[in-house]
Design goal:
Blueprint: H1 2-42, E1 52-56, E2 61-63, H2 70-78, E3 85-87, H3 88-99, E4 104-110, H4 119-133, E5 138-143, H5 148-154, E6 159-162, H6 181-186, E7 190-196, H7 213-238, H8 244-250, H9 252-258, H10 263-269, E8 275-276, H11 279-290, E9 302-304, H12 305-316, E10 324-331, E11 334-335, E12 344-345, H13 346-358, E13 362-371, E14 373-375, H14 376-391, E15 396-405, H15 407-413, E16 417-420, E17 425-427, E18 431-437, H16 439-444, H17 469-494, H18 498-504, E19 509-511, H19 512-518, E20 523-524, H20 527-537, E21 544-547, H21 554-568, H22 582-598, E22 607-609
Parallel strand pairs: 1-4, 1-9, 2-3, 4-5, 5-6, 6-8, 10-13, 10-21, 11-12, 13-15, 15-16, 15-17, 16-20
Antiparallel strand pairs: 7-18, 14-22, 17-19
Helix pairs in contact: 1-21, 2-21, 3-4, 3-12, 9-10, 13-14, 14-15, 17-18
């Protein structure tokens, strides 16, 4: 009897608990629906003015793909904590929409906050600016100050203004980094390095205290071509005399001294900007084209790029059709496993390619590569997925952005066609591996390592033990085999003699223009050219475009929708977030720095990575 009562009471409690949970879930659902309805009624997107300026203000780095997990980044954006980045495609799309939109009478391009940007990305935006100007509408560029990247875009506008207290700083291009050999020796670390390629310079900071002659020659050739392209583009866009940019940068001190120390006046005198205007004067100038804002008479009527794109993309829908060219972006270091956008995961990028494979509406694929390489294993995983697409009758075109070198070239070379920008950094066909050991460091503080094993390899690859000769020999054999696979693959896919590939390999880096001459790419062009080529290979006359990106789960999407509705009611979700303490900020920055040294995870420790940073 007692046991039965206990059982009945237990079942009753469970039933009441489940019923209570059901009521809570119903309440939450009703709350969500209420907020959704209230948000839709009170937070509907405002109508665009009949006459307005499109305000484009690129912030942070100009990128092919926003970095970070999509859900985490969306949350960070809602809470106002996302790292500044601007998608090239967003700027291009906004200008394309605005060219035929009668409501947009002028574009205001504000460039003070633009950070790093590869020259090819700048050229793509500049081409979009030129296409917009063909509509007869004007582009007004401004900046409190201009870094080199921002000035490049500003030079392509109809009118270019700067604040009277501003400056233009054109520093040219360079390739600098730190070298650690002496520090490593002081710390008594044995940094075992294995590589194939006379120009494979990624490992040099660990073995030298300066740039090798081979690397100096290679980098010098790259930066001279970049600077020449930059100068020529700016001089042509601004209608300047030949040599103006070089003369100004080489004699900057004299120019500023002649302007009594006023660098803004020196910039104006050199013809680099049209006029020096305060913010109020700039607003008045744009009002001539856009009219006054109905909310603020001191401002011109405008719509931001984010708001404009949100409405126009909702109105026009995506670019997909019954038959499509899919675009898969591969941006960042190539790492093993699943990685968030901004990095290329062997498994996660392969999954995106498989989605293109399994989508019957996708007839061909463009792989947009912006990567200096990384894990050899992950690169091979991605290459195999590309070959699977080709075997299924879906051609693949590799479209190279700023960098497609080393592992970035490995995943490109298997494509049916490779299209590079003239200023793409590519090549760097070479392999390396590194394995640091710390037994001498530990000996210095009185720590030793000893033990027994059943084979010569037991405990062999421990960082607290000296690397044996047989381990070094094994590593070198693996690296040499990887290099042979690399040049053999290039030889096969590019229909080139293996010795020829080796001669232009050895870790040497090339611009896209050089790569075309060397047979490493098929033609020069941008992403649009690659999409057109992919459609042609698939025999498509009419086609859509489908961007294949990581998906949010239904739960993640619901949470983001709920938070968006909350914000549309006027309540800022950021008020519920506690600002990080200085210690938390420091810890996050330290973790970010450490991740640079620990990010590589190739199972064999073999990497095809290029030091391709050009500033």
């Amino acid at each position: 009897m007692n046991s039965r009562n206990i059982f009945v009471r237990l079942m009753t409690a469970l039933w009441h608990g489940a019923d209570g949970l059901r009521k809570v879930m119903h309440l939450l659902l009703l709350l969500f629906i209420f907020l959704l309805f209230f948000g839709a009624m009170s937070g509907a997107p405002p109508l665009l003015p009949k006459k307005a300026a499109l305000f484009i203000q690129p912030s942070g780095a100009l990128v092919e793909q926003l970095a970070g997990d999509p859900y985490d980044r969306a949350l960070a954006e809602l809470f106002g904590d996302a790292p500044p980045q601007t998608l090239v495609q967003d700027v291009v799309d906004a200008l394309e929409y605005a060219a035929t939109d009668e409501r947009i009478t002028v574009v205001h391009l504000e460039l003070s906050a633009l950070g790093s940007a590869g020259l090819d990305k700048l050229q793509r935006v500049a081409a979009a600016i030129a296409a917009f100007r063909e509509s007869g509408k004007r582009v007004i560029a401004s900046g409190d100050y201009f870094a080199q990247q921002g000035y490049y875009l500003g030079a392509h506008a109809d009118e270019l203004y700067m604040h009277p207290e501003g400056f233009v700083f054109l520093q040219g291009f360079g390739a600098y980094r730190n070298y650690y050999r002496d520090a490593i020796e002081m710390l008594r670390i044995d940094w075992n390095v294995f590589r194939v390629g006379t120009h494979k310079s990624y490992v040099e900071p660990y073995t030298r205290m300066d740039m090798s002659p081979e690397d100096r020659e290679s980098r010098g050739r790259l930066i001279e071509q970049f600077w020449s392209a930059y100068r020529n583009d700016v001089v042509s866009a601004r209608g300047l005399e030949e040599g103006t940019i070089d003369e100004f940068t080489q004699n900057l001190v004299e120019h500023v001294a002649n302007a009594d120390g006023d660098i803004a006046t020196a910039t104006l005198d050199a013809g680099l900007v049209d006029e020096l205007l305060s913010r109020a004067e700039l607003r008045d100038r744009i009002k001539v084209y856009a009219g006054e804002s109905s909310d603020d008479k001191a401002m011109y009527a405008s719509v931001s790029m984010a708001e404009y794109l949100g409405q126009l993309r909702l109105l026009h829908g995506d670019k997909a059709d019954d038959q499509n060219v899919a675009v898969v972006v591969a941006s960042g270091d190539i790492l093993n496993g699943t990685q968030p956008p901004g990095k290329i995961g062997g498994d996660s990028t392969a999954a995106l390619l498989r989605r293109a494979l399994n989508d019957d509406s996708v007839k061909s694929v463009v792989l947009r590569v912006d990567s200096p390489g990384g894990s050899l294993f992950a690169s091979e995983v991605i290459a195999h997925e590309i070959e699977t697409l080709q075997a299924a009758g879906k051609p693949v075109v590799a479209s190279m952005s700023s960098v497609a070198a080393s592992g970035g070239y490995w995943i490109s070379v298997v494509a049916d066609k490779i299209i590079a920008n003239p200023t793409t950094v590519t090549g760097s066909i070479g392999i390396f591996g590194m394995f640091p050991t710390f037994q001498r460091t530990m000996d210095l503080v009185g720590v030793a390592t000893d033990g027994v094993g059943t084979t010569p390899w037991a405990g062999e690859f421990r960082p607290d033990r000296e690397m044996s000769d047989r381990s070094k020999q094994l590593f070198q054999i693996i690296i040499e085999n990887g290099y042979d696979d690399f040049i053999s693959g290039v030889s096969e896919h590019r229909d080139m003699d293996k010795q020829t590939v080796d001669s232009i390999g050895q870790g040497q880096v090339w611009t896209g223009s050089d790569a075309l001459e060397n047979g490493l790419v098929d033609e020069l062009g941008d992403l649009d050219d690659a999409i057109a080529a992919a459609a042609e290979l698939a025999g498509l006359d009419e086609y859509g475009q489908k961007l294949i990106v990581p998906r949010l789960s239904p739960t993640e999407q619901m949470i983001l929708d709920l938070l968006s509705v909350v914000r549309s009611t006027g309540l800022d979700p950021a008020v519920f977030v506690v600002a990080p303490t200085p210690i938390a900020t420091f810890a996050g920055r330290l973790q970010e720095l450490l991740s640079i040294a620990t990010r590589f995870n190739d199972p064999k420790g073999a990497y095809a990575h290029c030091f391709c940073r050009i500033d």
